[in-house]
Amino acid sequence: MSNGFLEYLRHQEDFTWRELLGSLEKMNMLFGPRDDVYWLAMPDKRKILFISSSCEQLYGLPPATFYHDGDVWSKVSHPDDRAKAEEKWVASSNAEANTQTYRIINQRDGSVRWVLERTSLVLGQAGDIKLMSGFVTDITEEKRNGDQLRLAEQVYAAIEQAMLVTDAEFAIRFVNPAFTNITGHSAEVIGQPLQTLYAGYYDAWFYEVVKTGIEESGEWRGRVRWRRKNGSVHVRPTTVRPVHAPEGEIVFYLFLFSGPFRGTAYVEAMKDDLKLAREVQKRVLSKPLSTNGIGIAGTYIPSQELGGDMYAWYPIDQQRYGIFLMDVMGHGAAASLICMSVRSLLNGIIRKGIVPKEVFRELNRHMHQLYHENGGMTYYFTAVYVLVDVKKRTIEYASAGHPPGFLFQPDGTVAELDRGCAPIGLLPRLFIDSGRLHYEPGATLVLYSDGVIEGGAGSIRQNIGEFRDALAPYVSLDERALLAHLRRHFAQKGPLPDDFSAVVAKLR
Fold first, then answer.
1. Is residue 346 part of a domain?
2. Where does this protein have coiled-coil stretches (predicted)?
3. What is the pLDDT of residues 285-319, one digit of tens each?
4. Between β-strands 289-290 and 250-257, what pairing exists: parallel, antiparallel or unpaired?
């Protein structure tokens, strides 16, 4: 219990305050082991009188921090949601409960969490506000599940392949718009047995054949006579795949229908969409940055329409800058989507100024939550992150399975950034080793993807050495001129076997 609350109680004549004190102590015992947090405050003084010890689990801070820091709500709130968190102090004279959701940042592990906060007021006899109470619940999991469900619904509706879903008893549960376009059937068939949609003699044996095929090979493929809503019949190659519950039993069957070739117009439209996606991917790459202490620029050439490389940098404060480069294992739309997913997360992580180890741990947690929960995906990426302090003239870095970057000193010596960990997303838990280097004014930092060193005649280690030696005569150039030299150098080699990206930072 806070000393502030005890002092407040000493000035109260009504014994009910002392009863409230005892109740709050009981609530502290009740809510301490849980994620829910209960608090009591004087809004006119922005002072927390009581907060349950469960705040340490949710916020990563002990109760004492809340008692001694009136601005703690703003500090733990996500930068984009601080205004919502501050609204609790702007109390009106009505005692109605107020409910809102916003994001906080756990100060212990850096994780972003969604919370639901309910606040209410305690009014005096004159209608003035005496106290404010709040109840905070962690809804991160519910929010993530809701977002994933909405995304799944949008993908299900937008996908151009016709599909329907049945339950384990082959009763229809969902049909997507593409299925409606082909068959004419829509929501009116939901709840109906599957046999109402196919023509010819199909009985229980059909389901047994499907189940047997799934048991033997994981899915069933065949040609089925389906009946359109207008009564006409069409034969369509069909794939049936099971959807399992966590316990292992089949809860849904997914029916996929192969569609006819759509012709040149459709292919051209897909090409246009890929070109647009490529332009979007390029536009999220950080623009060149130049200050008195540092100049940063990058270049990126994908080997296909969509690639898996991405770089970004952020000024953290007046003296620190975070530089990040990643390479998703693979190409095409999947690699590009993972890049966009990570890019959306970086801003909140790096601007907090946390060290490379924490950046990588948060990204690894992100990859496993989004891409490995069902155990069927193996998406991961290599990365290098460098935290530059232009006042101390130091860099702190970590490399997650990425080719080692180079720090060229003005005296001609070169240090490789080769300390780190396994690629991000490959393992549930990372054991990270970071490095720290001092630099002299005029040093040059070069980061690059493995597209730079692949395809050579020698080993990877030899190619790294050759690339380092090829860079050395040109590191006196400014960042943009050095990158232009790199682009010309690799353009002469013809088509790239992999995406090519590089970041150059001149440390002044």
1. yes
2. none
3. 889 999 989 999 999 876 655 667 889 999 998 89
4. unpaired
